[in-house]
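Thread: quick sanity check before group meeting

JM: Hey all, I'm pulling together slides for Thursday and realized we never actually wrote out the predicted structure for the chain we discussed last week. Dropping the sequence here so it's in one place. If anyone has concerns about the input, flag it before I start.
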Amino acid sequence: MQRKPHNAMVLIELLVVVGILGLMAAMAVISFGAMWGNNRFKGRAETLVNTFQMAYEAAAQSDRRYAVVLDHLDNTYTLRQFESLDLQTLSDEEAIISVGRFDEDFQFDYVLYDDLEDTRDRGEAFTEARFYAGRAGWQFGGKVVLRDRQGRPWTIIIHRLGRPVELVEGDAGMLLPQPADRVPF
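JM (edit): ok, ran it. Output follows.
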């Protein structure tokens, strides 16, 4: 009869161990899910960074012009080669090189150009943002702010003078062009 209390104690200990293991497994799954989502976002953001870099490098090596168009209405970004000098309209016949999509895991928030034009100031009229690359570099630099599933901001910085396009965590600042009277050379 002494064995029954001992058997009950072993059962309780076993249940406690199983409960602790279950709790640890649940924490690991939650942690892995967050890590997986963050890596997925960063992978897609790096694809967009590579799209900007591809436009810059292709324009620098040729006489062609390229545009990266971020469409807020269609939730897409497009790398296009274009021929016309009318930058307000890009013909549908112009070459589309690649297209990517934004969604709830990879959200397009806003663009701030280095001339301080801010797409947030356009309100409902904001439909798309464009970055043009030519042989001399970017027409305008700026930053593109993205948001991940949790709403955290990430910034893609496009330098007008051709430094590599970079992805930075947070809503980062950017270097602005200086007026001629402030440049010593």
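AS: nice. The radius of gyration is 25 Å. The CA atoms of residues 145 and 181 lie 31 Å apart.
JM: adding both to the slides.
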